[in-house]
TrEMBL record:
Pfam families found in the cross-reference section: RibD_C
UniProt-listed PANTHER family: 2,5-DIAMINO-6-RIBOSYLAMINO-4(3H)-PYRIMIDINONE 5'-PHOSPHATE REDUCTASE, DIHYDROFOLATE REDUCTASE FAMILY PROTEIN (AFU_ORTHOLOGUE AFUA_8G06820)
Bacterial bifunctional deaminase-reductase C-terminal domain mapped to chain residues: 3-179
SUPFAM superfamilies: Dihydrofolate reductase-like
Protein's name in the database: Dihydrofolate reductase
Length: 189
């Protein structure tokens, strides 16, 4: 059975993008990127909302851009071999291999997908993740806290949920990013 992981870069005040939708303040440097590459090597399926998919589909062809550093090419390869499910009522076609569209997020179908998977899954994008969190599906939270306060925007966590967690791992990076990995305390969702 795979774990469902929610992982994103956030500002110190808990936003994945600012009020204008910008997230460049959270772009990983080489050290963080290489760590992310290792973290996501175990992922077999990405669950995306439309907007997150439209951001991440860049990795389908990133390796073809001239002059890409090896760590960028490596992440592109890690991303390309995983399956992707995009939850969208408006997207008509996908621009990546190993990708399918689902019109609605069904917690029971996601639970079954987890149970049948021999690799980990991620839920990506705060709106889709909120649905998975509320359904009690997220097993692990991997938060990359960036050294920025953006004052508002798209929050990492939904406002109307409580989940008790236990710290599993932490790491500091030279650029000021802090990685925090939490597991859900059994029976306390």
């Amino acid at each position: 059975m795979g774990k469902l992981i929610y992982s994103m870069i956030t500002s110190l005040d808990g936003f994945v993008s600012d009020a204008d939708g910008n997230f460049g303040w959270g772009a990983p440097d080489q050290e963080v990127h290489e760590f992310v590459n290792e973290q996501f090597r175990s992922v077999g399926t990405y669950l995306y909302g439309r907007r997150m998919y439209e951001t991440m589909v860049y990795w389908e062809t990133a390796h073809k851009e001239p002059g890409q550093p090896p760590f960028v090419v490596e992440y592109a390869r890690v991303w390309q071999v995983a399956d992707k499910i995009v939850y969208s009522t408006t997207l008509n076609e996908v621009a990546s291999e190993r990708t399918r569209i689902e019109r609605t997020f069904d917690p029971d179908a996601a639970r079954k997908l987890k149970a049948e998977s021999d690799r980990d899954l991620t839920v990506d994008g705060p709106h889709l993740a909120a649905q998975a969190i509320k359904a009690g599906l997220v097993d692990e939270y991997q938060v990359f806290v960036g050294p920025a306060i953006v004052g508002g925007g798209n929050p990492f966590f939904p406002a109307d949920v409580r989940v008790d967690l236990e710290l599993l791992d932490e790491r500091r990076f030279a650029n000021g990013v802090v990685f925090l990995r939490y597991g859900v305390r059994a029976g306390l969702v």
